[in-house]
Write a structure and sequence with these properties.
This protein has 2 domains: 8-103 and 192-220, Rossmann fold (3-Layer(aba) Sandwich), CATH 3.40.50; 109-189, Dihydrodipicolinate Reductase, domain 2. Helix content is 28%, strand content 26%. It contains 7 helices and 10 strands. The protein has helices at residues 18-28, 47-50, 66-75, 109-122, 144-152, 195-204, 217-220; strands spanning 8-13, 33-39, 56-59, 79-82, 101-103, 127-134, 159-163, 169-177, 180-188, 213-214. Strand 6, helix 5 and strand 7 form a beta-alpha-beta unit. The longest helix has 14 residues, at 109-122. The structure holds NADPH dihydro-nicotinamide-adenine-dinucleotide phosphate and the ligand O=C(O)C1=N[C@H](C(=O)O)C[C@H](O)C1. Ligand LZUJQKHR binds at residues 85, 105-106, 134, 138, 143-145, 169. The active site is at residues 134, 138.
């Protein structure tokens, strides 16, 4: 049993992936956390094997695995922070809690601000389109961030997806009106950009008063 002051015992699902490796390093560097488990097919460790020894799981896996992983966490009494994009959140709604589920389509603070500014601008400018650009290893299109941005904006907002080597994660929202355009752009040039948001979510997921909570803005701006 854990008590106040004990480090948070964190497990990472997708620990051998691009994000998972970065998250493992960030947790190892956090004084109030212990990296207590790493699950990934490449490591030969299944999520179920680490659930007995962790307080929180951070999931950066794949769209078709994140829902089952999160349900396994909840059934084991473990909080879960989900970063995986384009997964089905519906089965995680309406469950008894705690344990709590937190999901952020994007953990970079600049991306959170971009989404908010785009939503606000769309209320007064005539039309908008989104261009999202990612590395060529990304499985889903459109990106979760672009889909969420379009949801937050007024009107029908087309999304264009670019996949190229050399990119990390980038998005441009272009709004147009008579005689003018407004471009709001965010660039994650390094996966470190997501780490402060992930660590914040790990610290806060256990004390959420509702579940699931979607969006880092709720941890940054809500009282
Ligand atoms: N919310 C945010 O801020 C961000 C979200 N993302 C999202 O995070 C996800 C991961 O991205 P990325 O790290 O680039 O992807 P990777 O493909 O590099 O990593 C995913 C890892 O998860 C492993 N995996 C697959 N199934 C399971 C499972 N059931 N349990 C444990 N591990 C599993 C994969 O193994 P194998 O390859 O062997 O299948 C792989 O090692 C994507 O959905 C991406 O869109 C990315 C960046 C930021
Ligand atoms: O796959 C990625 O890399 C990213 N995925 C998330 C998304 O789909 O929006 C977040 C960020 O764009 C990086």
């Amino acid at each position: 049993m854990t008590s106040a002051g004990d480090p948070i015992r964190v497990g990472v699902a997708g620990a051998a992936g691009r994000m998972g490796q970065t998250v493992c390093r960030a947790i190892e560097g956090a004084e109030d956390m212990v990296l207590a488990g790493r699950a990934d097919p490449a490591l030969g460790v299944e999520l179920g094997e680490i659930l007995g020894d962790v307080d929180v799981v951070v999931d950066f896996t794949q769209p078709d695995t994140a829902t089952a992983n999160a349900l396994a966490c909840v059934r084991a009494g473990v909080h879960v922070v989900i970063g995986t994009s384009s997964f089905d959140l519906e089965p995680l709604r309406g469950l008894d809690h705690p344990p709590n589920v937190f999901f952020a389509p994007n953990f970079a603070i600049g991306a959170v601000l971009m989404m908010r500014y785009a939503a606000e601008a769309s209320r007064v400018m005539k039309r908008a389109e989104i261009i999202e650009l990612h590395h060529d290893g990304k499985l889903d299109a459109p990106s979760g961030t672009a889909a969420r941005t379009a949801e937050m904006m007024q009107g029908d907002v087309p999304i264009h997806s670019v996949r190229l080597p050399g990119l990390v994660a980038h998005q441009e929202v272009i709004l147009g009106d008579v005689g003018q355009t407004l471009t709001i752009r965010h660039d994650s040039v390094d996966r470190e950009s997501f780490m402060p948001g992930v660590l914040l979510a790990v610290r806060r997921v256990g004390s959420l008063t509702e579940s699931p909570v979607v969006g880092l803005e709720h941890l940054l701006f809500d009282s």
